[in-house]
Design goal:
Shape: globular
Structural class: mainly alpha
Order of helices and strands: HHHHHHHHH
Radius of gyration: 30 Å
Strand content: under 5%
Number of helices: 9
Helix content: over 70%
Distance between the termini: 85 Å
Length: about 260
């Protein structure tokens, strides 16, 4: 009898422990489920990631800056010199960022670099300025450039009205914001489409440049150098014009 009562007690105790363990496991499962919902799901694939990087590096500045650089320099020779200097500066900046990326292996762009070098206040001020001023203004300039080029075919022989350009740019900002807010996949599809379009335009420009370069080389070998004389004539040499030319040139190289 004593052995049977001990077995019953052990069975009851084990049953109570199993019940308590099951009850304790339930809140843990719910907590794990809640934590799993907080994580971002990987919605961007390889192609979308490549298109995002390419679209960020090759910005719309390359379609807008050449006109502004030439307008601020006033001569072809000075314009080409500014472009070469901007390319050298962008290369040095990219090399510095590559070295920083190998030394400070933290995510967050410039923020961790400024944090390590100057402390939290400059890093926070840079992030705050970038979020509220730099990035929105850059986005607005890109949309204005898109609106100007998109509306130009409808106004042959004259410049499009500023009202049309601004309204079209505002519509582009609203559409892109809505698409990014609704779905990550939809935004990635739009990014892929825009990047493919941009690459086609860049390839057309490169091929046209190669053809024109071949024509220039042929003209040089033929001894016709009239168009290359006085390439620096009419240059605008002032602090404001050179600064604006450098600003537009570096904006085109901003992808690094």
């Amino acid at each position: 009898m004593g052995e049977e009562s001990l077995r019953k007690r052990k069975g009851e105790d084990s049953g109570e422990e199993d019940g308590q363990s099951m009850q304790s496991d339930e809140p843990q499962k719910t907590n794990l489920q809640k934590q799993a919902k907080l994580f971002l799901s990987p919605s961007v694939g390889l192609i979308s990631g490549i298109c995002m990087i390419v679209g960020t590096i090759i910005g719309s500045g390359i379609f807008v800056s050449p006109k502004s650089v030439l307008a601020n320099t006033g001569a072809v020779g000075t314009c080409l010199t500014i472009w070469a200097a901007c390319g050298v500066l962008a290369t040095l900046g990219a090399l510095c960022f590559a070295e920083l990326g190998t030394m400070i292996t933290k995510s967050g762009g410039e923020y961790p670099y400024l944090m390590e070098a100057f402390g939290p206040i400059p890093a926070f001020l840079f992030s705050w300025t970038s979020l509220l001023v730099t990035k929105p203004s850059s986005f607005a300039i890109i949309c204005l450039s898109f609106a100007e080029y998109a509306s130009a075919p409808f106004y042959p022989g004259c410049d499009p009205p500023q009202v049309v350009i601004k309204c079209l740019a505002a519509a582009a900002i609203v559409i892109i914001t809505i698409v990014n807010s609704l779905s990550v996949k939809l935004a990635s599809y739009l990014q892929n489409l825009l990047t493919a379009t941009k690459m086609i335009i860049v390839i057309i420009i490169i091929v046209s440049g190669i053809v024109l370069l071949a024509q220039v080389i042929y003209i040089l070998f033929a001894g016709k150098t009239e168009n290359f004389e006085d390439s620096f004539k009419g240059s605008k040499i002032s602090i404001s014009s050179i600064s604006l030319a450098f600003y537009n040139g570096l904006w085109a190289y901003d992808g690094w």
